[in-house]
Specification:
three-stranded antiparallel sheet, alpha+beta
């Protein structure tokens, strides 16, 4: 079963579906700095001036939390992450901004790869622990041929 890396995920906190990229952004931001958090502003809590429903909130220890930036789902998650990495310096060094953008793109690629590997691991674990004969097609790295394996990882002819 293949899933699109940007599939929507239902968020009980937000009460609606969130894109996979937004969910991934939230995880990367939290991994980067545990005092940062991606939040969603529900429609009932927005004012007429709130046109961007997502925000990054900084909650430093012992200080009052504050909003770092607002954005929409249409904004590039890589650009948002690059702004966080660069400290959102509008008049900063261009090279530093380019490096921050590249680091943000690499972080997204790494997280997508990690998610895909975890999904494949779960699939293989299911196939290998299920005692009934489930078959999986696998490409033999030596010959390049597609072979069928049973649940005990034996070739099926």
């Amino acid at each position: 079963m293949n899933f699109d890396v940007d599939h929507a995920i239902y968020s009980e906190e937000a009460g609606h579906f969130v894109s996979g990229k937004i969910q991934r952004l939230a995880e990367i931001v939290k991994d980067f700095d545990p005092t940062l958090e991606l939040r969603y502003i529900p429609p009932a809590m927005r004012t007429s001036e709130d046109t961007r429903p997502y925000c990054i909130v900084h909650s430093p220890l012992g200080k009052k939390p504050y909003t770092v930036m607002y954005f929409t789902e249409m904004d590039s998650p890589e650009e948002i992450l690059a702004r966080i990495f660069a400290g959102d310096n509008k008049d900063g060094n261009v090279l530093r901004k380019m490096e921050a953008k590249e680091a943000a793109q690499n972080a997204f690629r790494y997280k997508e790869h990690l998610d895909e590997m975890m999904e494949k691991h779960d699939q293989m674990h299911f196939l290998m622990t299920n005692r009934s004969n489930n078959y999986v097609n696998w490409k033999d790295p030596k010959t390049g041929q597609i072979v069928k394996l049973d649940s005990n990882r034996r070739r099926v002819t």
